[in-house]
Amino acid sequence: MVCPWCAAPIQADWQACNKCGKALAIPCTRCGNPIGPDADACEKCGTVNRYRCPTCAAVVTAKARQCDRCGFALKDFWKSLKM
Predict the structure, then answer these.
(1) What is the pLDDT of residue 79?
(2) Pure H helices in the chain
(3) Mind listing the pLDDT tens digit for each residue in 25-64?
(4) Which residues, in sequence order, are CB contacts of 26 under 8 Å at separation 6+?
(5) Which residues, in sequence order, are CB contacts of 81 under 8 Å at separation 6+?
(6) In whole angstroms, what is the distance from residue 31 CA to residue 58 CA?
(7) Alpha-carbon distances, residue 66 vs 41, 50, 75, 81, 83 (angstroms)
(8) Partners of residue 31 on adjacent β-strands
(9) What is the pLDDT of residue 44?
(10) Beta-carbon neighbour count of residue 11 at 10 Å?
């Protein structure tokens, strides 16, 4: 497994990444169900809670202008999702 934020190796039982310090499990914004580092959508309600760069698969915040890891311009990516 790897950290969804920085791609550093992680272990399944870790709560935060040892490299970047970000939380590996996040609560769903709709129902509060925990979402692990290997998922982007909630298993319970299906809400997408993490978005990934289409070039390097790094987690990007909604409406970010570019990927922090690879620098990919995300403008057209957001248009393709029709957010």
Answers:
(1) 84
(2) 75-81
(3) 999 999 999 998 889 999 999 999 989 999 988 888 888 9
(4) 34, 35, 49, 50
(5) 51
(6) 24
(7) 21, 15, 8, 15, 16
(8) none
(9) 97
(10) 8
